[in-house]
Amino acid sequence: MEGVFLIAALTSILSVFLICLFLFVNGIPGMAKIGVFNFLLGTEWAPTDSPASFGIFPMILGSLYVTAGAIIIGVSIGLFTAIFLAKFCPERIHRVLKPAVDILAGIPSVVYGFFGIVVMVPFVRNYFGGSGSSILTASVLLGIMILPTIIGVAESAIRAVPESYYEGALALGATHERGVFFAVLPAATSGIMAGVVLGIGRAIGETMAVILVAGNQARMPTGVLGGIRTLTANIVLEMGYAADLHREALIATGVVLFVFILMINLLFSLLKRRQAR
Amino acid sequence: MTKNILIAFPVACAIMIGMIGCNEPLAFDKKREISVVTREAGSGTRGAFVELTGILVKVDGKKKDNTTKEALTIDGTQAVMSNVSGNEYAIGYISLGSLNASVKAISVNGVTPSATTVKDATYPIARPFNIAVKDSVSPLAQDFINFILSDAGQKVVEENGYVSVVQGNTYEPTKLSGKIVIAGSSSVSPVMEKLKEAYLALNPNVEIEIQTNDSSAGMVAAKEGTCDIGMASRELKESEATDLHAIVIARDGIAIIVNNKNPLKNITMTTLREVYMGAIRSWEAVVE
User: Are residues B100 and B69 in the same domain?
Assistant: First the structure.
């Protein structure tokens, strides 16, 4: 019986290993052919021109900008929601609110994208200008998408803080708000940060929703109302037709994305360890 | 606290619904920026579009696609259509065969895109799908060509969104066997694959190999005899036409589409090129 469990455990490790192997074996030669600096720092992406250029710097920036926007929106709303759910919310409302947040996590990303393209893109176009497909739209949409991740992790981190912290603050004459914000919240910081990092991971890896609302222009960002192409969008958009070096360049884009995700996961486990201590 | 939430929740809902409701736009505003919609790099439709409109510039063997960097990049014909139908200020292009009423196809240089204008080559953004053979064609390859040009073959062409070119030929399976090698344009090969399937259903003893590269390579292969039939998504060049003779098997038109609310009915080739190269940014210069 033990063998069965072992095989089950090995399956996932093997998957990770195989994916790593596939990415690096297929991606690194392409990156080498283009030149690592030309690839990572090149600002021109024109795979069908001859000579072709394969610079993914605009896409790296695109992913970072959209993720940063999502974090600004997602963390500010998510953190306050988590504080409310953990410390202010009456049981009656909690019973409704918590499942509602969980449903948000279960909505498929293409549905978010559809909502984005039907509701948010025209809204931004009509009230802010531009084509509507922009960094702003993508950031807001991603901000909403990462809410459940941030709320869930942050709420449990706040609840994990011993009740004595809060009671101690009250005993010293602090109000309820002051006790929560200045005694409980600082103690939960590393847990909350872990939630934020998980949110970043989700935002940077998100593809379907972003592709529908971001405009996907492969050029340096021009402003919050201009569009942008993310790393994930670059792969999905062009994979269908790509051949030869173009294809290798897209797999190499995947390698860059993978390295980003690895760094984020590393950061997450560091924070987790600090919280455990 | 609880009371505040009970008030805040309906208010938030009302704002959300308002947001959705307010998206109904007013009249078409000419001063707005054009949302140029293009396909992703590598797409056959984009390749044909930039080549036929002169957006793709070729100098000394170098090719540069000058589509404006501001263009929204969208994968797939359907996605382009849904984007244009949802954005009053968008302009896009799709294969003529996929056009439906959700968007409006505009005339180019005064010619309406339709199967008729593509067939008689008056619509400018259209190209022939050619096959090229040497004068001495193997009986089997000739049989396949007969099939392509028959009503059955041309029906396959139309089913895949292209425009048929000939009518009235009938095809009888000849029960030949052997192998045909076809090479050339990646734009022609999808429809060639379908023609192959239909032909093999009638002639199960035949084997057909399709090598997809590009028009020029296909012509060279046909000339050198490494393939029986070459495919080209363009007219043959003079140097190629001396050894080969071309047969048009289908035509492909690309329709320029705008939102149904857009008053634009016609666009000149020059204006279209300038829009796609980013020289014209506002609808004012396009819509009179």
Answer: yes
DSSP string covering A191-224, please?
A: HHHHHHHHHHHHHHH--HHHHHHSB---S----T
Q: Which residues of B touch A119 (CB under 8 A)?
A: 19-20, 23
Neighbours of B182 (CB within 10 A): 26
Tokens of B34: 């054009």
In a domain, B10, yes or no: no
Q: Is there a single domain that holds both residue B245 and residue B146? A: yes
B40 part of contact set with chain A, CB < 8 Å? yes
Complex ipTM value: 0.80
Instruction: Based on the fold, state whether residues B137 and B119 are members of the same structural domain.
Output: no
| Distance (Å, whole) CA A250 – CA B42 | 12
Q: Mutation target for A interface from B17, B40, B57, B83: give the one with most A CBs within 10 A.
A: B40
Contact A130 B23 (CB under 8 A): no
Nearest to B72 among A47, A93, A227 (CB): A227
Write the pLDDT tens digit of every residue in A186-216.
999 888 998 999 999 999 999 989 999 998 9
Number of domains forming the structure of chain B: 2
Residues B73 and B101 in one domain: yes
CATH number at residue A134: 1.10.3720.10
Query: Are residues B198 and B104 located together in one domain of the fold?
Result: no
Which domain covers residue A95, as residue numbers? 58-276
CA distance linking residue B32 with residue B282, whole number of Å: 6
Q: Are B231 and B130 in contact (CB under 8 A)?
A: yes
Cβ contact (<8 Å) for B65 and A130? no
B17, B24, B34, B73: which to substitute to probe chain A, counting the most A Cβ within 10 Å? B73
Domain assignment present for residue A163? The answer is yes
CB contact, 8 Å: B27 with chain A?
no
Whether residue B225 sits in one domain with residue B120: no
Contact list in A for residue B44 (CB cut-off 8 A) is 241
Secondary structure string (H, E, C) spanning B234-250: CCCCHHHHCCCEEEEEE
Expressed as residue numbers, the domain containing B156 is 127-252
Q: pLDDT in tens for each of the 288 residues of chain B?
A: 455 655 666 666 666 665 555 555 557 888 888 999 998 887 778 888 998 898 988 887 788 888 888 889 988 788 889 889 988 899 999 888 778 889 999 999 999 998 888 888 889 998 888 899 988 888 899 999 999 999 999 999 888 878 888 888 888 888 888 899 999 887 788 889 999 999 999 888 899 999 887 778 888 889 888 999 999 877 787 788 888 888 999 988 899 999 998 899 999 999 999 999 988 888 888 887
